[in-house]
Amino acid sequence: MKINEFVPDSKIFQKIGTSSNDNSENKETESVGFGEFLKGKLDEVNAQQIKSEDTTESFIKGDETNIHKVMLDTEEAKMSLELAVQIRNKFVEAYQELNRTQL
């Protein structure tokens, strides 16, 4: 039985030899706190809700908006909101579990 040799692609290791400027950019992105990250994601959910509302209003007004775009925007906003609610529920559940633990 012959075992094939693994030859890694050189593109995988390109980030290893990058300059120090790229490293400082990575440090800036890593310094974002959990609260800021969560706020950013909630802002994205809010933006999707607003986009859905705007496309629905433009369709109702009779603008040149495709019904498929309205449905896609609405479903995307609905799914992102449902995901945000599920994540919130998991956080609340984890918080309650931590409060129940005895020291």
In DSSP terms (H or I, runs of 4 or more residues), the helix count works out at 3
What is the helix/strand order?
HHH
Gyration radius, in Å: 23 Å
Helix and strand composition category: mainly alpha
Number of strands: 0
Shape: extended
**% residues in beta strands:** under 5%
* First-to-last CA distance: 57 Å
Major β-sheet profile: none
Mean pLDDT: 82
- Low-confidence residue ranges: none
Helix share bin:
over 70%
List the helices and strands and how they pair.
Elements: H1 20-30, H2 34-61, H3 67-100
Helix pairs in contact: 2-3
Family: Belongs to the FliE family.
Main location: other
Protein name: Flagellar hook-basal body complex protein FliE
Structural account:
The chain has three helices and no strands. With 103 residues, the protein is mainly alpha-helical. It has a domain at 33-100. α2 (34-61) runs antiparallel to α3 (67-100).
